[in-house]
Amino acid sequence: MNIEPFRAEETACFLRLAASEQWVSERWECDFLLSAFPQGCFAAQSESGETVGFVTSLCHDRSGWIGNLIVAGEQRGKGIGEALFTTALGALRAAGVVTYWLTASKSGAPLYEKYGFSGIDRIIRWVGEGRQRHAPGHLPADTSALDTSETVVDSLGWDDRRDLLLAATTERGRVLHDESGFVALQSCGDSIQFGPFSAVDSGGAERLFEAASGTVELGRQVFVDAPASNWAALRMFNRKRMKIVGSSQLMYAGKKPVYRPELIYGLATMGSCG
Which fold has domain 2-97? Predict the structure, then answer.
């Protein structure tokens, strides 16, 4: 088994593996990660030259995110996932990262704990529906770019600037924002993802959520990945009759971040890079 750079032409193979695990993952994420931090994205090759696993990572300012760690089912139990993970971890370390993030399934957490990762929160996946027939009379500003105050809200939540990720996720969708924060609406297969979604208070978050829901076709599925420790988000999504369809553990290693989940109402991607 060899660990090699993840090549763009292997994206279709990654997407097939992701689909087999019922991951919500799309080509744009691979394109973005391979462009933004190619030295942190890897593929595992069997002795016969078959691609049997992947991992990606992304470097922000002082922090980094490891995601998309996947190994073909028949190849598991051979140490491939651990080799991919440690290679990505080394790439982030070489880039000067001091805080490392990832989300983990229950089965994956022991591997990460072995390398010093600790749980800091849980990420809950909520699913609901658009309500375009009930759009509010006044929508927050609609734009495809964030201003400085909005990126600051995101950075306060995660204790780092994440400019590349915010640009990539907001440019591919719509952004609604007002003085309280912002929410991006991204296509996610046939569904819509709300995220990144940050707000300084629960009232502002609810206004943004209502406005966003009112722009999505009635009945179209909406996903949000939100921190479990954001109690305002928990209450709001329950009031909106959204349902929990899954969760993962948010973990970090290295320097402990000044993490403020009360500012985070939706992650920027569905687990791959924060």
Answer: Aminopeptidase (3.40.630)
Q: Distance (Å, rounded) from C-alpha 43 to C-alpha 35?
A: 16
Residue 1 has pLDDT above 90, yes or no: no
Q: Which residue has the tokens 């996610």?
A: 188
pLDDT digits (tens, 9 = 90+) for 189-206: 889 999 999 999 999 999
CATH says 124-266 is which class?
alpha beta
Residue 110 tokens, joined? 């022991």
Helix residue ranges per DSSP H, the chain: 11-20, 27-36, 80-94, 109-114, 148-158, 163-171, 202-213, 231-239
Cβ contacts of residue 37 below 8 Å, gap of 6+?
57, 58, 59, 91, 95
Q: Other CB atoms closer than 10 Å to residue 103's CB: what's the count?
A: 24
- Hey, which residues does 42 pair with through a beta bridge? 5, 55
CA–CA separation, 191 and 185 (whole Å): 10
What is the per-residue pLDDT across 6-56, written as a single tens digit (0 to 9) for each? 999 999 999 998 888 888 778 899 999 999 999 999 999 988 888 999 999
pLDDT confidence tier of residue 75, bands split at 50, 70 and 90: confident
Separation between Cα atoms, residue 127 and residue 226, nearest integer Å: 11
Asked if 203 and 222 touch (Cβ cutoff 8 Å), the reply is no
Q: Which amino acid, one-letter code, is at 4?
A: E
Q: DSSP assignment of 48-104, as one string?
A: TS-EEEEEEEEE-SSEEEEEEEEE-GGGTTSSHHHHHHHHHHHHHHHTT--EEEEEE
**Strand-pair partners of 182:** 177, 198
| Token pair recorded at residue 16 | 């097939």
What are the extents of the domains in the chain?
Answer: 2-97, 124-266
Average pLDDT over residues 179-187: 92
